[in-house]
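Table S2 (text version). Query chain:
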Amino acid sequence: MGKTVTNIVSAGLMIAGVIATGGLGTALIVAGIAVQAAGTMIFKDKMPSMSYRDQSERKQMLRSAVASETIIVGKTVCSGLLFFAEEERGEQDEHERLFMALALAAHKVDHIGRIWLNDDLIGTFGDKAGYEFHNSRTDCDPYMLKNAPSWKEDMIGDGLAWLRLTLRYDAEKFPYGVPNVKVEVWGKQLFDPRTNKTIWSNNGALVVLDFYRSYLGVPDADIDFESFKVAADLCDEPVVSPEGVAEPRYTINGAYELSESPASILDHMHKCIAAEPTYVAGKHGILMQAYNGPAVLRIEPNQIIDTVNITPELALRDATNAIYGTFVDAEQLHIKTDFEPVIIEEWIDEDGLEIKENMDYRFVTSPYQASRLANLYLRKKRAGRRVQLRMNMDGYAYRPGEVILLNLPHIGIQNLEFRVAEWKFHPQEGVDILLEEDGAYIYEDIIGKPFVRPPFTVLPTGGVAPPLNLSFVPVSIGEIVQGYLSWKSAAADVRYNTVNIIQDGKVVQSIQVPQDRVDLSGLVRGSYRAEVRSINAAGAMSAPAIIDFDIQAPPKPVSVEVTGGMFSLTCVPRAGESAQHGYTFEFWFSDKKLANTNDLEVTTKSNRLGQGQFWTKENLKAGTDYWFYVRTVNSYGKSPFVEAVGQANALPADIIDEMGGQFMTTEAGKRLEEQLNWLNEASLINGAATFEVQQDLFTKHGQSMAQIKRLDRVFADANLAWAQSIVEVNASINGVKAGVIKNDQAIADLDKAFSKSVTELESSIGEVKSGVVKNDQAIASLNKSFAESQTQVQSKLDEQMAIVNTKATTEFTAKGEGYATWDVNAGVWYNKTFYKAGMVISAEVKAGKVSTYIGFMANNFAFINPTNGKFETFMYMKDGQIFMKETFIDKAWLNSVVVTDKMTSANYVPGKVGFNIDAKTGDAEFNKLLISGDFKIVGDAGRVLVDGTGMTVYDENGRWGVKVGRRPA
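Corresponding structure-token output:
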């Protein structure tokens, strides 16, 4: 998402920016269901029906603490983001004032004009409405600071264009509640490279230039300003409309959000001024669709070095003979409407049917500009002759936008005029060029200027540079293809390369190739040297690049190192000093040790992994032996196998940390990390309904009130249909409130279906609240299916809360990834800290891999066995430790063991069989003991020693007196 409008929305404003109740707020709420809860509908976040917010949506107020930045260019009529609304201090009366703050743009604008409340100018409201426009002010608004109770001194709005509104309640002036606000805005000022000045302009090319510089962050050094100057002149060119009024040829007027795709914004801008983006010699530029002839360059047959592909006419499936579409009509207060379609009857007769295409000119406010654009688009598309060819290095001089004459007399093409549409330069292979039919007849009166090519800043100097990264790669065994040499040409103008294969100082093979690779074959056993030289277009030769390689069976690896990882093993062979050039290793794998390492045993009883300098085997069991069988391979043979064994890492601490970290990145882990907060879900669908029916059953007695209210709303047009039904049941007396809300929604547009059902129960006495919220929703779109059912039980006393949340979620996307997750979480907010226990069950598909999980989170786990009417705890987990009474384990890997009582074999009989180790006294009894290798037994306070050399007895001075066995060193 793009940047967010937060310059003025400080932390205090995010809390204070709500619609206060009582006084004017209450009066406006009661005034109409369309502004239920002082703006639930018109302030709710919108669901755009397109990839961007169209003009009808932009003329409706939004309400949010954080929203995408809006950029206004040219002139338009729009609403904005209502980020603050509050009543004045004091008790309710019919003249209560409401203070509102409306963000228009995330930048300084030139100025504003008329202001409408709903469809009436603000001046018609007299003293019931007032405003003040703030354009990137640098200090706090004293009016708001004085009158709005929640307005703070740090709420400034530097860098924003925003409007302060004051409404005084009047039932006649505001019969339907809070009005919608629209403003006529002249947008941001633009830099003009023709004058080096920054002024307001709606010149289309300057708007595109501003987008590159301000929002894509392209430095000026990477912008082709000359192309923008030419384009800006063409945009400013006056065109006389059929009504005799002159207007600029191409303007851009409107607004966009920085959350939109930058590529989409640029595409709309270029489409609205008949332009194309260019990127030549490292610079971003613009190319207007204008005639740049007459041609000064030619393409002759002797310049073409490969096959010519010709498309003589546009295929019927790609043809268009009628253009329909929309633009934003400035004469009707910037309403999106249809322009007069451009239809060519002769082409319809030729095609046999009308083939229409719809265009969306979102930044065009003139019907004549829309018609000019549609006409040019149709004529250019209809001119369908295309020629794809490859030129020699002469093609370097031909760049996109230039008009050329194509002369291929041997196939009947003589001096036809084409435009260079695409250009791609290959230092070794020439220049690929796509030509499109061109001529003044396509553009009518749009006459542009010749394209000026920016110079390259760095060109190679001196002699031809030698090839880089020369290497020999064996590819198969035998004498048909033994391997290949590859390299990278360092010079840009290399025509071909010469390769000499040398043995014992004599050239045995000499090869000439245009590319950066050559296959080798027919070499007998032995050691060789390869020399590769580059030759440029002028015939100059580079110094050689040199590599040595061998054609003979290689020796076996001198060693193989197997390193254990987390459920993996990495095998790294070493070839030693006797290894020949151009070798690699072949890896085979088995979970059992083979009888021997001969070829037949290994290749029939193990699995081949592949070739390389090392190999990592994944998804292994910890603490289990696995065997690698490795041999050396080159282009002339294979060595004998070498065996190596290893185990994957079996340290519990490492495994737990690694697997725990991986688990927390899954959907299941994310569920356990989520905090629980107070939940409110009911809301209106944003937008005006086609029909709605409201029912209200109400009774009141003193401070006692009971109400049943129902609202049914429906809407349908060509692109969107929705229906909503809300039922509210409320009762209150002296601040004691109870309520139930049932909200069902169904929304469908051309590529998405959304259904939602919410039920809320809430009871409250002051700051004591309790509630139950159930939220079910299902979403189906062209690339994703999503469904979720959530139930939350919640209680609140002041700032302390207790919450139980149960949620089941399923999702699958068109990429083949999805998950099914069920979780239940119970938590409390206590002293501003959240404590939680939870459980999750999940199955996930990601990157083609299926994983299933069950996760638990709590400080304490108790496992209870109800035996004989008793509840016996047989296992308990607390703060990361496990306590168990009795456990049977078939096989265990223990990193460290602490014995607090004794360790006894199952067959222990004192003095006869088995063993016993008393951990408290240190006594140990082994009825059969075998010790091998180095050992040491010390007794009698260190005076008797038994070790691998025999028995030694020391005297009271520490000198040995008796020695049985070898003499000590």
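Notes on Table S2: Confidence is low (pLDDT under 50) at residues 1-49, 446-461. The first helix runs from residue 11 to 16.
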